[in-house]
Amino acid sequence: MTSTPVPYIGRFAPSPSGPLHMGSLVAAMASYLDAKVHHGTWLLRIEDLDYDRNVEGADRGILASLQRCGMQWDGEATWQSRRLPLYEAALKQLQDDGLVYACGCSRKEIQDSVLQAGGPKGAATVYPGTCRHGLAPGKAARALRLRVPQGADAVYAFADRWAGPQRQDLTSEVGDFIVLRGDGYWAYQLAVVVDDGAQGITQVVRGADLLDSTPRQLYLQDVLGLPHPGFLHVPVVTNDSGEKLSKQTGALAFDTASNAADLLASALLPAARFLGLEVRADKVEDFWRQAIPAWARRLAQLPEHP
């Protein structure tokens, strides 16, 4: 008896901290093409939980830019800020299971603890578990952290469809991580896992800057009883200094062309070339007709990853 294939559901999840730039266009294009090649669904989710970084009107600009590029999402776009009860329910589940505790450590205190233990400065992001057994006298909670497993259970391995086999020890490389920030903002790791689970995402296609986050998300999916999606992390676009292209590094909006031909030449074709796609088109609709089979050929060129 053969099993029924699981329908492909992918997503693009930008933050409205400004207009889309070339790096975000590459990620959007890869996720869109992967959904099309697999005859799947492509969802759009605006990740707007970091309210301090949100730019007024940026979400509407993102939707407009995608449509100008010829990328239409399926169904209605969603906003994380409208889904807060889902995150609250997930946190309660984790608390009921005894997996969450209050942490009173500042970033400097964490860094000092790591250095005092003989660790290098680069290891400052690995939380040493200072508050695992309760807050020190006089300490107030600054965040809520999730306990990571110990020993062999802390090792998470997965096969990325682009980057190949990955492995991370949550205890030694991450430590207990934040699920609710001290300012009341939901942490990315929790929100993205809850949203992917609620939306039935089966394949996550995004930039390689998030590759390191994946084991934490796999662990969260396990403790919340959610399935693991597949992952594909494409290379990130960098600036002349080798830094990831982002709003923080001065990335400019890609959608500044006055007409479709200029948009094709200045954005769509360069993004396709960055992904290793051979596309030659002078109209946006022709671009996508060529780009979809080109993505299928690109996937076939990737080495087999067990």
UniProtKB/TrEMBL annotation:
Family, per entry: Belongs to the class-I aminoacyl-tRNA synthetase family. GluQ subfamily.
A molecular function GO annotation: ligase activity
Keyword entries, A-Z: Aminoacyl-tRNA synthetase, ATP-binding, Ligase, Metal-binding, Nucleotide-binding, Protein biosynthesis, Zinc
Record's function text: Catalyzes the tRNA-independent activation of glutamate in presence of ATP and the subsequent transfer of glutamate onto a tRNA(Asp). Glutamate is transferred on the 2-amino-5-(4,5-dihydroxy-2-cyclopenten-1-yl) moiety of the queuosine in the wobble position of the QUC anticodon.
Cofactor note: Binds 1 zinc ion per subunit.
Cofactor: Zn(2+)
Residues bound to L-glutamate: R11, F12, A13, P14, S15, E47, Y188, R206
Domain Glutamyl/glutaminyl-tRNA synthetase class Ib catalytic: 11-282
Documented EC number(s): 6.1.1.-
Protein name (record): Glutamyl-Q tRNA(Asp) synthetase
Positions of short motif 'KMSKS' region: 244-248
SUPFAM superfamilies cross-referenced by the UniProt entry: Nucleotidylyl transferase
Domain of life: Bacteria
Binding site for Zn(2+): C103, C105, Y127, C131
Residue numbers covered by motif 'HIGH' region: 14-24
Residues annotated to bind ATP: K247
InterPro entries: Glu-Q_tRNA(Asp)_Synthase, Glu/Gln-tRNA-synth, Glu/Gln-tRNA-synth_Ib_cat-dom, GluQ/Sye, Rossmann-like_a/b/a_fold
Keyword Nuclease: no
